[in-house]
Design brief:
This protein is mainly alpha-helical. Helix content is 84%, strand content 0%. The longest helix has 29 residues. The radius of gyration is 15 Å and the shape is elongated. The protein starts with a helix and ends in a 5-residue tail after the last helix.
């Protein structure tokens, strides 16, 4: 599997986890847990975004 494929797979997994966290925000009634899952959704989304930008850099020939 190429590096590009690995980045895309990682990005999709992070996006899935962010979506799961957002689902949990709506499912729980505790404001503390809602805040926690919202924060985690942001973390996973940020990691997905970083994976995309790393993938773009590699496609241009830059090394990590």
């Amino acid at each position: 599997m190429s590096k590009s494929d690995n980045f895309r797979k990682h990005e999709l997994e992070c996006m899935r986890l962010a979506a799961d966290c957002m689902q949990l925000v709506g499912d729980v009634h505790s404001p503390t847990l809602q805040s926690h899952f919202l924060r985690m959704a942001r973390v996973w989304s940020s990691l997905a975004d970083r994976g995309s930008s790393a993938d773009t850099r590699n496609d241009r020939g830059y090394q990590d």
